[in-house]
Structures are given as C-alpha cells and as structure tokens.
Amino acid sequence: MAVCIAVIAKENYPLYIRSVPTQNELKFHYTVHTSLDVVEEKISAVGKSIGDQRELYLGLLYPTEDYKVYGYVTNSKVKFVIVVDSSNTSLRDNEIRSMFRKLHNSFTDVMCNPFHNPGDPIQSKTFDGIVSGMMVQTA
Amino acid sequence: MECPEEKPIIYTMENKPIVTCECGDQALFTSLYTTLAQQLPREPMEWRRTYGRAPKMIHLEANFVQFKEELLPKEGNKALLTFPFLHIYWTDCCDTEAYKGSVKDDMMRWQNSLRTHGSADWVIIVVENNETKKKNKTNILPRSSIIDKIRSDFCNKQNDRCVVLSEPLKDSSRSQESWSSLLLKLRTLLLMSFTKNLGRFEDDMRTLREKRTQPGWSFCDYFMVQEELAFVFEMLQQFEDALVQYDELDALFTQYVLNFGAGDTAKWLGSFCAPVRCWNGLLLRRPIDMEKRDLIQKGEASLLDLRSYLFSRQCTLLIFLQRPWEVTQRALELLHNCVQELRLLEVSVLEGALDCWVFLSCLEVLHRIEGCCDPAQLAANCSHTVGLWAYATDKLKSLGELCGLVSEKGPTSEDLNRTVDLLAGLGDERPETVNSLQSPYKKLKEALSSVEAFERHYLLRKSPCRWASCSPDAAPVPPVHSLGSLWRRPGGGAGTALPHAPPCALTTARRQHSLRRRAKQRDSGTLERAQRLSHSGTVEFTQSTNSPSSNGTPALDLDEIHDRSPTDNSLNSTGVICKNTHLLIRRHNSSSPSETPNGASPLVMKEEAQMLTVQDVTLHPGINSIKLKAPSADPGTYTLRQLCATLGQVQFILPHVYPSVRYEVYSQEPQLTVEPLEEPLLAGLPQFVKFTLLTGHYTVKKGDALQLSNTESMPILPSATVSAKISNTAGELVGEQVLSIQSSEKVTSISLPPAAPYHSLVFQLEVLCMIPSGAERPPNERLTNGEVRHRPRSYSHPDTLMAAIDQRTLCSKHSLFCLWEVRWTEELPPSLHCLFSAHFSPLNQELSTSKPFHYSFQLERVTTLYSVKAEIVPPTGEPHCRCGLLCALEVHITRLSEAAEGELIEENKSETDGPKTTKLMYEGKNQEKLNISCIADSSSNWAVCGRSSGMVLMPLSPNATHKVQIEVMPLFAGHLPFPKIKVLKYLPHSAATAIQPDPDSCVENDSLSLLDKSLDDQADTASIRSRGSVHSVGSSSDPAVSSSHQQRALNMPRLEPFSPGQVFNHSLTQQVLVLPASDDHIMEVNAT
C-alpha cells in the first residue's frame, strides 16, 4: 500500500501529509512538492481541450527508482498525491484509482463538516483513519 | 545474384523476402532483374490479415536469388528470414521441340524438388521475345500453344501459376501491359505466401507458448522463435507488428519475474539470476546487438543482457515509427523496472554498479534521441527527456558519494578501490563510440577520475533538469532543511493563477458533490455487507516480528478473495491471500543499500534453521571439491543460501550462492506394484505378472519376507526358480538373486534378498487369472493352491479342432472355467459348431466308471449388413402428427459392409435384374396377424395405408442407401412407438433351386404369400404353420414338417430372414408424439 498520502490545497500548501516511515518525512515532503509541477503541467494540458469532462485522476506523475507517485485533482483544484513503493508490484492502476476515490469521499465528508474551515489543515479523525487504512502499517 | 553460402546474417533493414529464380538461360534473367527489382515495390498492395487484424497497404520488395536445393527449408527448420517465399521459373522457350526435349524435364525436376519440400508457392514465367520468334520462324507454333502446354503439364486447376511476359525489353504498350500484369501477379502470390507461411509460423509459436507451464520450457528458445517473427515483420516494414512481438516478450518475461517474487519459480529463470558482472549500459547504436542475442540464444544471458537487448530492439523499431518520445518514456520505465527486478530476483550486484549502468543507459538513450531529432524539436519536447536527465544526475550523485568524490577530504583509498572495481565492470569502450569525444562511457570514466572532473560533469548534468532543481537527491547539498521553508513556493504556482471563488459558493458546490458521492457509496456499501453476510467466520492474523528493528519489515498486505461461480454468482470459496509474501517470507536485508552510510552494506550471516558444516578442510590451489553432509530430518526442499568459511577468527561470507543449490529430502513408504507383462491379462491362461517392490526408506534385511494373500481370482502358480533384480533409483542393476517361495493355503510367502533403501526389487511370478465368480457362490469356497497344483495343460490339435483339458476336482456348487482360444488360419466360417464333452465321476469312484457329458453349441459370426432408420414425417403444414391423419413413414436402408464371400456367390447366382444387387424385402407391420415373426405385439397403433410391403433393389457397394416411403395413420394419440419394420432377404424363384435347401428357408416361403394385403385370408393358416417351423429351427424336432414345406418352397420365390444382428434397426424403440384429433371431437364428447 501507500507510503505517503498528501492533500494539497489549491494554493499549493499542504492540508494534510502523512508518511511512513516517519523518519524520512522530509524526503516525502520533497517528493510530493516536486510532483506538484507535474500536476500543474497535466492540468494545463487538459484545460486546452475545452468542453470535455476532465478526468480527476492524473495517473502516474513520475516514477523514481524506489517510489511511484500518483496524482489526483478535485474539481476545486485540491490535489491528492499518493506515493507507493515501487517494489509493490501487486498494486495496479485500478487499485490506485479506488484509493483516490476513497480519499476523495472522505475529504468531501471533512469539507461537509460545518465546523471545518476550508483551507485549514485537516484534523479529522475519520479522515485520518481512512488514510491509515491505505498506508503501509508499521508494526 | 548473391549466394548466401555462409551462415545467414541477420540484418533486417537490408533484408528482403527471398524469391528464388530458376531459369534455363541465365542471361535472360539478368537482363530483366533490374527492372523487376525496381518495379516490384512501386505500388502498394493490400495485405489482409488473419485474426481480425486490420488490412495493411504494403510495398513489397524482394531479393531475387538463384534457386538452390539448399535454400529450401529442411524439416523442422523454423527459420523464417531465410525462408524462400516464392519460387519462379523463367523460360523463354517458344519451341515445342526444345520444350519437350529439355525444358519440360528441367521444370519437372524443379517442381519435384519443390514438392518434396512441401512448397506450393511457385510461378512459371514465360518470356516472349519477338527476335526469338523470328529466328525460329519456320518451325514455330502459335504462341499460345507453349503456354497451354506448360499450363496443362504443370498448373492443373491453377492457371494463375503461369504468366506470360512479352517483349520485356521493348518500350511498347504491350510490353508495359504485360509487365504490370506480371508485377501484380507476383505481388499477389507473394502476399498469399506471406499470409500462409506466417500464419503457420504464428500457430506453431502459439503452441510453443501454451507449453510454457511444462517443465522443459525455456524462455530463451521461445524468445528466438518470436523474434524471428518480429524480424520478418520488420523486413516487411511492418514495424508496428514487429514492436508488438517484442512487447509481448517483454510482458511475458516481466510476468515470470513477478511470479518469481510470489514464489513460483520457473527453472529457466535461474540463468537470469546470475550475478551482474558487466554494467556497460544500453547499446542503441546497432540495429541488432548480435553479442547479446547470441548470449540469449545460448541461454547465458543475464537479466541486464536480456533487458538491454529487448530495449535496443524496441528502441530501433520506435525510431522507425517516428516515436522517439516514447523511447524516453519507456527507457525510464525500463531502468526503474530493471533495478526492481534485480532486487526481486536477489541478484547480487556490486555496490554502485547499477548506478553506473543506469547512468550510462540514460545518456545512451538521450544521445540516441538527439541523433534523430533536430535541436528545435528536442527543446520543444524537453518534458520527455527531463526524466532521464534527472535520473542520470541522481545516479551520478550517488556514484560520487559512493566513491568519495563529494566529500571535502577527497576519496579515501577504500573509495579508490571501489572506483577501480566499478570502472572494471564497464569493460572496454564499444567500437561504435571509440572515436566520439562525448560518449557516455568516456563521460563516466572521466567523472569518476577526480573530484574536479566530477564536479564539472555533475553541474553540467544538473542544468537541463527542471524537476531536479527541487529534488532532494539531485542537489549535492539540499537547499532546504525544514518542512516550513519547503512549502513557501516562490510564485505560488498554479494557486495564484486560479480565480478566487467565494468560500460559500465553494462549500455548496462541494455539498452537492458529496451528496452524489454518498448515494453512490451507499449502494456499494450494501453490496459489501451482503458479501460479508455470506461468510460470517472471522479470520484473525497475528503477525509476529522476530526482528528487533521492525522498521523495515513491511506489513502484511492481506486481501479477501471471493471466488464466485460465473453462472449463478454463488460463492464457491472465499479466503484471505497475502499479496506481499515475497517481501515477508524472505527477510529483507536489514538495511537497503541507499540508506547505509558510505554504501558498504554489511555482510550479515543470516541465521537459518539448518547449517551444513564441514571442518578441517584443506584448500588447494585450483578448484576444490568439498563434500557437505546434510542431515535429513524433515522432508522438504532445502536451498543453500549463503556460504561462510571460518578461518580462526576470520569469517568469509558469500551472501548469495549462485547458481542456487537445492536438495530435496523426502521419505517414501515401501510400495508394491503388480502389473501384467502384457495388457490385457487373459483369463484361464497361466501368465507372468511383474511384481515391483520399491523399498522406500526401509532397508530389507535378510529374512524379511513378502506375504501375499492368495485370492481366488488370481492364484499364484508355483514355479521352479524366480529371481529378483535389484536396481537403484537411477535404474542401474545392482544385483540379482533367487527367491524362495513358499505357498500355503492362504498365503504365499516370498523371502526377499537384502536390499538397501530406495532400491527396487523386480521379479515375475506366474499366475492364473480366473473369471470372477458369480455372487450366488458361497464365499467360503475357495480354489486353493493345492488344487491348482496340477497345472492344466491344454493340448490343441489344429487339424482335428479338438482340445482336451486334464482332470479337475469339483466341489458342490463350484463352478469351473475353461478358456479356449480358437484360431483360424484361413477365412473365418460364418458359423462354427462346437461340442463340449466331459467325463465325470464322483471322487470316490474309479476313473473308468465316469459318465460322459455332452454339450453342443454354435458360434456365429455376425456382421451388421444393413442399418434401418425410420422417420415419421407429419402431414404437410402440421408440426406434429395428428391422430387419424396420414403421415409418411420414411425408411432408409443402408448397406454397411461389403458383401461377404458366401453372400456374393449366392447373389450372383440369383441375379436376374442386373449385376450386383441384393433384393430386400421390407414390410410395414400394422396388424397382428401379418406378423409372422414370433414377437407378439398386442397394440396395433398404426394403420398402414396403401402398400405395406415392397421390394428394394440394393446395390452391393457399402453405404448404398435406399429410401422407402409408406403411408401410415396413427390410431391413437400420445407417444406412440414406431411401426415395426422388418427386413427380409428375397430369394427369387430361379435361385431357390440352385441353392442347397436349408431347414430355415421354409419359414419364409409362407410369408411370401402374405406379401400383399389381398392375400390376407390365405395367410392365416400359413402363418400358424410357419410359427411352428420357427420353433423348429432351434431344435429341429419336426423334420417331417419342414421337409414337406421344402418341397413346396423350391418352386417359389422365398423370403429369408437375416440372422440376428445382421440388420440393425435404429428406430426400434423410438417414439413419436401424436396429437389427438381436432377439436370437434371434443365437442362430440360433450354432446353425449
């Protein structure tokens, strides 16, 4: 499963980042950060063709030797990034898609909370639980 | 014309499909060759493909070579590149004499050699020249005749195989016309040949692929086969198709590597697990890297070799297809993938070697792309190349760290050593790049040579990287150190560009969205619950980690699986699978290479449950062979993973033993198999049966005996000497020893010779197989050994046809079986009279007082001569038969076999109407009194209208069929059985006198009188009499009656029934649905 899951606001600041193993947090932050360039590029490329319903799932943003980075953009330009260990061969595109869908559903629930201020970092326990379910569990 | 004498060279771009030419006059062809070779590819042809692939326009080229017998593919030779696709015979002969004299023979010889090689793709071209015509003006025949002759001699049914080319060297309209028709013909034939031969090859290839689960299958062999196909597609300029072949190979290999990770090891994968010794990167400058191809062919390629070769081919094809950007994308995928695969296969690689390989490969790909694109194009598509640049930079940096080139103090001696090792693995520079100053090889060598050079190269690399600037790995010193500073992006990126929507609008939009989402989720939620309800058992997993540092251990990745049956979606099975077993079961190296300081991964001796040790070993220079003793406590497969040599306080560890050594420990119980020497075992004859005793783990000691309980169905006969062969597992004979056998009433005891474990003892015993007794026999009655001791000897006298059996003792209610085999040297007679006679006497009396017992019986040889098939056709316009309506009964009588000898003679004698016909009589039975056979049928369900019987003339040839139609009317509704159909033999008047009267014939004399319905009254008395005589056949009790009939019979045509079994009635028990009569009938019932 995922090693890092991030939610980035439309102004490109993080709303939520979680990663395992925790000691390498900075590295994952970088990975997510750099991937935003690709996200931007992909969105602008799609925007040119007018009228078509944009696919929220952006696919593989860029692979590195150890990790694969996948992206997803909601209609309000909130970005989801999932980083997966590349040695995990059992994860197919479909699984990644369903992970994003789950994440999006949960994110929508957070946004529906009347006490949540959009733009604030996400502190919802439910969301946290959903994310933990998708991450590699450290024993 | 070239003659490819030497080993066929594979170079696909220059290759063209081979077309062989045979011609009487070499000069003729040489004059035409240039035009032909130029004109052939000028116009495209549509190539229709099999398996639903889209048709393609294809420009055909060909390599015309002299016809040689060696060019024809030999049996089993699968080469497609050297396959001659078309054979042409050129002739300019227009002289009948010359044609008959030599040309025809020459053509014949050519055709024969083609035929023996199974080649059906040929064409004969007749060249017409006016000069030759004029020269031989005197004895010339009309032009067409030569061609007609060739056509009639060689191309029966395929007139298109002979083409005329007239005045090829003139520039006339006629010449052009004939040229274009010839070219069209050649293209068509070539395409036909491609379709056929490639189709066959593809089918063979698929078959080979299907065998991939079989143990002896080798990926390398398959690779060569599929690549051959790719070569041919490339030769035909069908790059897309060629690429598909390589992609398929790629996918197949990847799947195997993944399966390896999941624990499913294919044997051939072993060679790909060889330690990496050479990391000189991809080579994309050659169209085909023959060195690597040879390695693959020999099955010696390493994983990197195979991947490099595959990619170089894919790259070549993609560049032909004008898709250079796909190359870069695939290259990045490939490099990542290779690194992963090497890790998965546990291939041992020198630290940093992969970095070198990746660096060189990246640069090689980039150079290749730069080579085929102009700079403007390159700049516009930099987004495709930047990934590779970044990756190369990344690798260069890690190499620099590894070799101490980025540290302030400069490399230590340890670092230098490592550098030297790495450089050694690069090998020599490839000849292609020796002269270029900018080759990746030179760059890497230079970069690793000194700190200054490294810095220069590194900064040079870094500049084209867009993403690399913010990638933490790429920069020598990460520019940001805290999370906060990272996210303060200059410019704000996409965020600033977005128009700010009011927060409330955003939330409402979101709410709507979420409502939709929720509805969807609810649906799936119920589904999930339903699934869970079907299996309420709980599965608990406790993962125990025994390693103290559990950081690196991945968590269990469990998944529920539901196996549902495809038809009714019911749950077949459910379970939990672990998806990442390959990560869990194999313990990870406690530290992954990238995390360790200075890159030196510490050699860890893994603790394993078992260790094979040997002590006090003296090592000699050269190859030492050391024997290790393995304790064999538990059965299973053991793999030797590491080698550790201890010398005093020093330990040498080889982290991976390659090639992997395995041994298996198994334990087998002793087994005894009994099998007959020849199948099947015949009852009643003494025969030998093979006993095979596998000792298994048991050691047969002296005095051990094998006890066989005697069964009554297969008693063991005592024999003089029985010797057992002892052989080991390899099947080598170890010894031979005589067995002593003791039999008692219940048990046969065989004392076994001593034998080691896992040996086999083979001996043969003579047994007598009995036909299993019936159930009514008392079970305690046994045919004991003692009784059979007098072995029944049977004497056979071929001349007298008599057989005798020795005496036997019988008990009460005891049945005894005797078996005879009757052999005939000549033709088997149709029937054989046998007489069984036995003399018997009670046990306590003298033999002389025995009484005789006779039993006579007859063996008949029966072959089915005719088959009768009946069908009832409902009246026209009705789906079913209806009560009271006329239906047609169609009877098909088919002769099945050739007339038997006797019958044939008889027929010939009796023939009156024409040669070779048999007259058959058929009768549709509808009434009891007409039924002269003794079968009683109380229900007469059918009324036969019109003629109920008739005569059929049957030809004597097999499968001759005759159809007869009879009108019948069902009398009742319901499922009625078919009317009875009886087929009789009709012997006409004249024949009757010639034939020896036999007692049976009289029966049918009478039935003749019943042939027609008008004679019904007469029949009554006759049928009664005939019934009597039917009974008399078996017993022949009333000779007086039959003889009186005989006298009458001789004067009349007779009907003779076939002996049982000679006529097979297909529709004997068939039924047909008959509906009740129309509705007014019911009305009538109501009225009464």
Q: Which band does the percent of strand residues of chain A land in?
A: 15-25%
Termini separation of chain B (Å)? 104 Å
Helix and strand composition category of chain B: alpha+beta
The percent of residues in helical segments of chain B reads 25-40%
Approximate shape of chain B = extended
Average pLDDT of chain B? 68
Radius of gyration of chain A: 14 Å
Neighbour order of strands in the largest sheet of chain A = 2-1-5-4-3
Subcellular location (chain B): Golgi apparatus
Pfam families (chain B): Ig_TRAPPC10, TRAPPC10, TRAPPC10_1st
Domain TRAPPC10/Trs130 N-terminal (chain B): 14-327
Biased composition (Polar residues) (chain B): 533-553
Write up this protein:
The complex is a heterodimer of chains A (139) and B (1088). With 139 residues, chain A is α+β, with helices and mostly antiparallel strands. Chain A has helices at 25-48, 93-112, 125-134, and strands spanning 2-8, 14-19, 57-63, 67-73, 79-85. In chain A, strand 4 and strand 5 form a beta hairpin. Chain A starts with a strand and ends in a 5-residue tail after the last helix. The mean pLDDT of chain A is 84. Chain B is of the alpha+beta class and 1088 residues long. Chain B is 34% helix and 21% strand. Chain B has 27 helices and 37 strands. In chain B, the strands form 11 sheets. In chain B, strands 14, 15, 16, 17, 18, 19, 20 and 21 form an 8-stranded antiparallel beta sheet that branches. In chain B, strands 4-1-5-6-7 form a 5-stranded parallel beta sheet, with helices on both faces. Chain B is extended and about 125 Å long. Classes of the chains: A alpha+beta (139), B alpha+beta (1088). Chains A and B meet through helix 1 and helix 2 of A and helix 10, helix 13, helix 17, helix 18 and helix 19 of B. Chain A: It comes from Mugilogobius chulae. Chain A: InterPro entries: Longin-like_dom_sf (IPR011012), Sedlin (IPR006722), TRAPPC2L (IPR044760). Chain A: This is Trafficking protein particle complex subunit 2-like protein.
